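Technical appendix A lists one of the benchmark inputs used to test multi-chain prediction within the project. The record comprises three sequence entries:
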Amino acid sequence: MTQLFHQLGHRYKWNIESFSTENTGNGLIIAPRYMSYDYVNSMNRQLKRNSIFDPQFYLPNSDRGYLQTYPFFPNVLAEGFSTAEWNVELAKQSAEDCLAFQNDCDFQYIVIPTRYHSTPSDFIELQTNLFVEPFLNVYSSKRYDKPCLLQLILTDNMLKDEQNRNDLLNWITGLENIAGVYLIYYLSPRHKQIDDIDFLISVMLFIRALKVAKMTIVLGYLNTESIPLLVCDPDIVTMGSYENLRMFSLRSFQEAESEQRGPNARIYVSKLLQWIDHQYIGIISKKVEDPKGFFDDTEYRVAMFQPTYNWHFSKSEPYKHYFVSFAREFERLLSCNASNRFSTIQDECRKAIQYYEYFDKNGIIFEQDSSGRHISYWLTALNQYKKILESE
Amino acid sequence: MTIPVKVDDVICKFENPTLLSDKGGQKIVYTIQHPEFGRCVLKIGHYGSMTTLERIKREVSILSSLKSDYFPTNFDFQVLDQSRFFIIEELINGHTLDKVFRQFSSEQESCKLLNELLSAVSQLWAQKVIHRDLKPENIIIANGGPRILDLGIARVLDETSLTCSLAPFGPCTPNYASPEQLQNRKKSIDHRTDQFSLGIILGQLLLDGTHPFCPSLLGNGSSIPENINANIWAKDILKTKLSEPVFYILQRMLGHEPYQRFRKVDEIRDKLNIIILGES
Amino acid sequence: MNKCFPTERDLTETALKSFDFSNFFEYSGWNRWEGREIEGLFGIPDVVIAFGKTTVLGKRILRTLAFEMKLRNWQRALIQAYRYAAFSHYSFVVLDEAFSAPALNNIDRFQKSNIGLITVNVNSNITCHYKPKFSRPYSPYTYRNLFSVLKPKLFD
């Protein structure tokens, strides 16, 4: 059964509090960019057993945040990482220390890290030489009993092009010692919600191929497109607080957090399958019959809907409200039979579209990032994916 | 044009040499009477480079270390000169599978045979060796069960004898080759390549010897390799003919891309065992 | 060929010169304030004009008008102008008359959302095709923020 993990990052303590005290989700994905080596080491052991460590080697020469506290991080180990100078010895040392760390912390899985690389033509060779082969060699030689996940960051070109996708699938499924994949997809540029039908279908086909091969799939940095992706039965999907934890980007590994512009304050509305700008709350409340029933009912809503509430991205309430609302929605969707899941998710999408149509009829005009524009693309992707399955 | 391997100086050293196979002159097989090993097989071959020779030596060594009933015992291997070598191996008495398809036409019999063949080749796969030339002519049905011949050595031998028409492929028999072999996609070739060939053999068993990619069965004018490349096989015929579990195994093994096939041999064998035990 | 405004700025200056606020409410005696491209609200309105007065009973009354100026992209302008209704009593789209036909064909969208539609031509002729009704701003949070900025400027 699919599990829901928190994608940790900036303000990770909100996630940990929500997970620990409100039972939102099934686990955490630890982010060394934001959490120091000592902190992770000292974390509660039970918490770590329910977690996955993401080595975040995406940009191996990054010097951001707490990455520098990890002795096995490439930029630290090599005292300034460069591809040309990264040799077998360094790779082996990084592998030994990184895998030992993950094993000693008793995380659920051992993750083989990946480097961000945008060019499909030599992607497999580069990943194999840099990290995959050295790490897998150490994993095999140490005979760790934790199952191993291969992390991958795939761009839309890699997934949408059928030959590229097949090459990747052949490579991944041909690696004997891995139990599965920790997949992150990187679209650039992109809107806040995925509205590329071909891309969504290619992700679904990719997940499905790996599931048929009986591999574990962890999908990281997801926004609410995790909902349509549930039809593919991934093992773990994620929810993150800030947008950079719900849409993968390299910015946090290139810039300091403070250099990035703060987001507009938004609230997640499960009936709309969308985060809307908080400014629309008033007008929506005027138009719906039952405003209290429309917005997700959490203790945080009470605080946020006070007239004196100061909406700001540094406030925890919108994000904790999201964790609770989304976790509930997730459980509700998974509680139906697997055979009904497709139609249940399609129904969710249709209901959200109906709400947006109602609001449109009543004159509310949402800005693009609060609109329901993406949902019809999701429905189309779901319908086309279903047809592909039926034709097989 | 290839030059036949010189053999006279070799066979004269052995008693009763009887020509068994001469396919184009690069691989010549005799049966001989050996003073130590008795009646056995002598194969004389040609190598084109030191790399090729090293590969032959490695695979001979792996076979020898296997000590498996599924492969003929390797008795001797010698390098003759700068271009030739010979191998002496156990003579297996029996019929090649292509002559005895009908013995395995029921689902249970064919699954049992497939199970044995998987046991055999998985010993190679465990050593990171891929056969690459599995076909009925390379499988002897002996009293004790199937034996697989021409591991790798045939591949190496054939490599140097490829004609222009076969050059686009890697070393293989096109009618039993996987799509990645036919397209010479070397990076995609692994144990699942052999699985595809076994899938073809399974299909043949269940079709009383007819190749599942055979154009006359499919009603098209393409060749078998063309049908393999285009993923056109007797899917609909077999789907109606076979039970669901058997069809599922066959369909997966004939997956066009390696990732579509079974990832681990245990998965196939678990499914086969359910079929085999279920009917007994 | 119809002449058109070379830039949005030209459109803005002409529109504001010609706009008759008395069409909306009697503002004589009110204090007036004008701001351009104000940040920190909802969207960045091209122009906000605010009128304020304190009644004899000491009550402060504020009326805000927000304008989105666009040469031709009426759909984007409509989305922006609707955002401004979060903090303004009247919100308008102002288009170059030369490119206004598509918007006029969709005037029902403006009516539905109570967003004013005004066109201006290079001869300073201004036409109000849809006059929005007075409407309380729909985001009390942003309206409060705007009020606190305008308070010292408009009220004693």
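The radius of gyration of chain A is 21 Å. Strands of chain A lie at 3-7, 27-30, 51-53, 110-112, 148-155, 180-186, 216-219, 236-240, 266-269, 274-277. Comparable benchmark entries are summarised in Table A2.
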